[in-house]
Amino acid sequence: MRKGFTRKPRPDDPATRGKNYITPGGLERLKDEFRFLLTRERPAVTEVVKWAASNGDRSENADYQYGKRRLRQIDGRIRFLMKRIEAAEVVDPETPRAGQAAAKAFFGATVRYANAAGVERVVRIVGTDEVDLNRNYISWVSPLGRALMKSAAGDSVVLQAPRGTEYLTVLEVSYERICVEPFREPPGSEASAKGPPRGKNPADEV
User: Are strands 156-161 and 164-175 parallel, antiparallel or unpaired?
Assistant: First the structure.
């Protein structure tokens, strides 16, 4: 094994403003959620609000107040997703790489490293919208992601974490497919509700 180097990430390395690096699967998940909210959930909640508004005093109408609050939440999330999608720069980890691009850890890399105690761990460097700690998917702008960035097998890196400083040894860097959990319709969403809106008497439909 070649002798590695010890490197501390600089405060401005890497630059993140205006960049939303993301894998193909991560972008697809954002788009699926955006479509669900815009074409299904928002129209369904709007119908509930219209029905609740027809029931009299809106100031004491729990269904109306909840619906309006939910619409604000949905609109906020739609705006957020739109900005993230527009700023997305897709990086496919499976794209063939050569030279340093294949040997060093960049966005999309799978990195195996060991801490000072010799405990090994494998992480995948992904976008901020794709973080999944259960799968060891870490953000490229997280303390660990920044520490591993641009490192290669045999290098030593310094992790400045809230719990203290750690010294890590990079054992292997590779690039392979990163499977992102697909978007799933959340339980209890208005769009998936069966029957009339909450609080509506089915008999009224007869």
Answer: antiparallel
- Which residue type occupies 111? V
pTM: 0.80
Q: Kindly give, in sequence order, each residue whose CB lies less than 8 Å from that of residue 129, ignoring residues fewer than 6 positions away.
A: 20, 22, 26, 29, 30, 84
In order of their start, the domains of the chain are 24-88 (1.10.287.180), 89-175 (3.10.50.30)
Do the Cβ atoms of 18 and 88 come closer than 8 Å? no
Rounded Cα distance, 206 and 198, in Å? 17
Q: What is the pLDDT of residue 173?
A: 98
Write the CB contacts of 157 (distance below 8 Å, at least 6 apart in sequence): 6, 7, 113, 147, 148, 151, 167, 168, 170
* Residue indicated by tokens 């992904």: 126
